[in-house]
C-alpha cells in the first residue's frame, strides 16, 4: 500500500518505488485514497518484475512457456509497445527484462553486470498476443520471458489513476508520478524542465493543459559508469548520446512511451505516427525540439 503525507491540498505518497503527487479540485477522502491505493497495488502485482508474486514473475518462471490471460489494462499498454517496436525496428521492446538483469538492475538490486550486454530476443520468437471473443488479451509464450514495461508502464498507471478519480467525481486533477504528469480540467499549469546534467537547474518551461508531459533521463536510474535503465533492445546496451527527453501527448501512456522512444528513434519518424510535441537534450548540451513545441527552451 502507498505510504502517504500531506502538502496543503495535495496528496503525496510513495508507490511502485517512486514519489507521487495528486492535486484535485476537491479534497480526496479516505475512500478515494483507498481506491487509488488498491488500483496501484493491482497494477504492481500484475506488471512488476521486482515482485516474486507478480504475473510477470510467474510468466518468467514458466520453463516451457504457457498461455496467460492478461489484465484489462494490457491491451493499450502492449498495443503502444507494438507500435513503437515496429517504428524503432525492434529497439523499443518489453523484452528487455533479461537485458536489464544482465546489467545488474534485477529484483535483488545487485547493480553489478553479470557479463556482456544481452540483446533482447525477437518479439515474434518468444510470444504471441491474441484477443479472444470476449475482448480479453491472452499472451502465449514459447519459453520463459521476463517482461519489463518500464518504458511506458508508469505513464499508463498515471492515466489509470486519473481515470479512476474522474469516475469518482474529480473533474480537475493533476496526477504526477515522479515526472510523468497528466493534467485534466481547469487552468493549465507551468512546469519547469529539469536539466538532466544538473538537476538544480532548468532547461526550459512549458504550460500543460488537458494533456500529459513525461520526461526521461538516464540519470533517473543509474548505478555505474554508462549503466542505466534506458536500453537499446537490439544491442542490450544503454543509450549514450541523448541524455534527456520530454514528450507532450494526449495521454501519459503515449507521452511516457514516446519519451523513451526519443532516445532510440529519429523524432521525425515518430511524428508521422503520433500527434505529440517533443524536446530532447544531447550529452554536449544541445537542445532540439519539434516545430509544434510551445514551451520555452533555454538554449
- The poorly predicted ranges are 1-8
Distance from first to last alpha carbon = 42 Å
CATH class descriptor of the largest domain: Alpha Beta
- The helical percent reads 25-40%
Average pLDDT, to the nearest integer? 91
CATH superfamily assignment of the largest domain? ApbE-like domains
Q: Judging by the overall fold, what is the CATH architecture of the largest domain?
A: Roll
Helical segment tally?
8
Strand content: 25-35%
The helix-and-strand class reads alpha+beta
Cα-based radius of gyration, to the nearest Å: 19 Å
Shape: globular
Number of strands: 19
Q: Looking across the biggest beta sheet, what order are the strands in?
A: 1-2-3-7-8-11-16-17-18
User: Could you say how many structural domains there are in total?
Assistant: 2
CATH topology of the largest domain: T-fold
- Pattern of helices and strands: EEEHHEHHHEEHEEEEEEEEEEHHEEE
Description:
The chain is an alpha+beta fold and 299 residues long. It folds into 2 domains: 3-38 and 152-297, T-fold, CATH 3.10.520; 51-141, T-fold. The chain is built from 8 helices and 19 strands. The protein has helices at 30-47, 55-61, 74-87, 97-103, 123-126, 153-167, 252-261, 267-271, and strands at residues 3-7, 10-15, 18-24, 66-69, 127-131, 137-141, 173-177, 180-184, 189-195, 198-208, 212-216, 222-224, 227-228, 231-232, 237-238, 242-249, 277-282, 287-289, 296-297. The longest helix has 18 residues, at 30-47. It is globular. The chain starts with a strand and ends with a strand. The relative contact order is 0.14.
